Amino acid sequence: MSSGEIYVFDDGPLSHFAEAGWLGLLEAYVDGNAALLPDTVHQELQQGVDSHAHLRQVLDAPWLKLEVLASLEDLTALSTFTSRLLGDDGKQNLGECGVLALAKTRGALAVIDDKFARRVAGDEGVRHVTTLGLLLQIVQSGNLSMEYASRVADRLLETEYRLPIGEGGFRAWAAINGQYDDEQEEEGRFSP
Hints:
Structural class: alpha/beta
């Protein structure tokens, strides 16, 4: 757990962790820290719950706090991101816009995988992490072994989550990104 961190989640990580049966891992990691769900993402999840029953777990998760983007500061930030990210249909990327706006106004960490949204986040000074990056943080915090994190990543791939790795590739991804080596593995880490 990262003490005092505020997380703002996009629908992709939440949906796929729920489908893979690992939503509880995210809950355990944030462990009392604020975990925010922008209303834009909440709407996307609600629209998909009839065809994807696992989304009900996300919508009912008591550790995720629904945040409505309503203040002038929130709406100004939302406008900034919609001007850069919103698709021609007026709906595509609306969730990502809400995530980035909320992360910006709350000084939070956006958990987001969309490559273009991450680029815009960087341009706008919004801290962000990908799903794999968050999974690596869980390993580095000592809350999950690399072996089990690799299993989680593989299970996310089975849900057809588009991640920049193949099956069995999480450990190599972590090493290539210079954030993990086998010597970091310690005894006593949580291994479900």
